[in-house]
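Give me structure tokens for this 291-residue protein.
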Amino acid sequence: MALLNTAETRLSVMVMIARQLLGSEGTGLPESDLKASLSMKSESTDVIRSLAGMKLIGLFKDEQEEDNLRELTEESASALTESLESFIKHVRMQVMAPACNTDPWGKQGGARDLTTSLAHYLSLPFAEAESNFTEMNNHQLRDLGRAGREGAVRDTNQWAAFYRWTCALGFGWLDLNEKLIPDPTVALLDVLPEIFIEKTVLHGNVFLKSISELLPVLDGGNYQKFVRKNGLKSYREAPNILSDGLSFALRNLEEMGKVTLINEPDAGNKVVRLSPSVLKDQFSEVRYCNE
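Here you go.
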């Protein structure tokens, strides 16, 4: 199974399932009971598929499988107890985990279909923001070829699943014309405390490296490198400026007062160049404003 194989795998339903399990006082619940109780709140197919998706990305304890019980891992339960936002962040990191992304190029197992599609989509300029499967398919075929497209979004059902996951995980949003805008502001906001855990000021290149390690579908991350390495020749070389989406997200964070992008003179290889789509050329340092 893969996360995009069905449009019925939904984060919102996963949250309902997790809350039901959190109220079971650590004993777990039979999958049949979960299906019966939650199918009154959501479509039964959504519940079945979302249960399978939760298992796929490691939100359940493995040892409950034989008894057909479902119990949240300690990390999943702790995140949901803290807040809905913490649970979504936990789900995002599970989707990004190497253990869920072991399939080779052109295959869709685990979360590989979603991370491959995200890595490609987040590299596109705003002018190529997509509003339907046909547009996405054309871009995938142009950059990834037919073999690469087989490991990404293959049809309209997977497109529906993709845009839901993209928005739910904080990597984009739908504009008034229903175009999916690549914008990882929400995902970046979640990882800022981890990036600045030791220092409140980082060199630009160090900051970018930290982003790519925590969110590997973004510029310089392993999943974006995976897509470029295996894509068509014209797509393989990454540009020497940040993508529109990441540039826009960083400027968003600055306008929100979360970071300050500083451009020091003679900064050498510490400089990071932003996309021409934003009103700032480059930065060499980033200051975290965590007050």
